[in-house]
Amino acid sequence: MSDIADKVKKIVVEHLGVDESKVTPDASFIDDLGADSLDTVELVMAFEEAFSVEIPEDAAEKIATVKDAIDYIEKQKAA
Amino acid sequence: MFSLSGKTALVTGASGGIGAAIARQLHAQGATVVLSGTREAALQELADSLGERAHIAVANLSDPAEADGLVAKAEAVAGAPLDILVNNAGLTRDTLAIRMKDSDWSQVMTVDLESPFRLARAALKGMLRRRAGRIISIASVVGTTGNAGQANYAAAKAGIVGMSKSLAQEAGPRGVTVNVVAPGFIETPMTDVLPETVREKLIGSIPLGRMGNTGDVASAVVYLASDEAAWVTGTTLHVNGGMAMV
Question: Known PANTHER family for this protein (chain A)?
Fold first, then answer.
């Protein structure tokens, strides 16, 4: 697992208070991890801070799963 | 009832009459208070008179950066996360609209509407995470009734109400409440200088037959800040002696 994936996982566990084993790549923040809309905004803000990236509103809306978040941040970091 | 023991509160505009009364009452209920304003000497004097659990954080809220940084500054001097934010600071630039300068409008908007938003935004981040918090903003009866000569002030105060209702909906799921206190005519040095006939006419329009005092406003803030008000959010508590029943 990449450093980014590792860090994303850690942030999700910390913010949503879920068990690490549940944070699989395909896990949906809302459907599988019990997040509400405020949680997802807080997660996006936590990602922005942790990775020093800016995630605009339209991109944030498309981040539904753990993998979505990892992919988006990896793409930003590679650019 | 209404104990605020163990809570930390930031009061902006604490060197003014209403702000100081709010700070005193929050402190009397057991809260640690951070007094903010532009006049350091006045803030320090108030802090000294309160004794323990009183800190100061000087900030000029017409400067966006200072407004953005005030919550962090307050938490640093208090050494604790913020439980209660009281947006009380405000200024007026009264004049009839046809004579109102752009700067009269923008100064009032910046200090009376934009800075409360900046403070609330900063405070909410921590409050949402901690799943607790109180945001109370001081508006005015004129935000509801309007007032000749105060198009800027009335617009800003009405804006506070709309903003607070929106924030209340956003923060509700986390147990954070956002409310407004809207005072009517309050005895201050400004109203002391009114001619007696004007005063009498003013009081005649108030069913409870007197001007309000700063303590009347502070008591409403204490209530909304308390655990007892846990199921009250997005509301405006009018403290005006019945002058406007809205």
Answer: ACYL CARRIER PROTEIN, CARRIER DOMAIN-CONTAINING PROTEIN
Between residues 154 and 173 of chain B, which touch chain A (CB distance below 8 Å)?
170, 173
Residue bearing tokens 């001097």 = B77
Complex ipTM > 0.95: no
Question: Does residue B38 have a known ligand-binding role?
Answer: yes
Question: Within 10 Å of residue B102's Cβ, how many Cβ atoms?
Answer: 7
Chain A environment of B174 (Cβ under 8 Å): 38
The domain B8-238 is classified under which CATH number: 3.40.30.50, 3.30.70.1230, 3.90.180.10, 3.40.50.720?
Answer: 3.40.50.720
A38 and B170 within 8 Å at the Cβ level: the answer is yes
**Is B204 part of the contact surface with chain A (CB cutoff 8 Å)?**
no
DSSP-H helix ranges across chain B: 17-28, 40-50, 64-78, 102-108, 115-130, 142-145, 151-171, 189-192, 196-204, 214-225
Catalytic residues of B: 153
Q: Report the alpha-carbon distance of residue B140 to residue B22 in Å, rounded.
A: 15
> What are the domain boundaries of chain B?
8-238
Q: Which residue has the tokens 């209660």?
A: B84
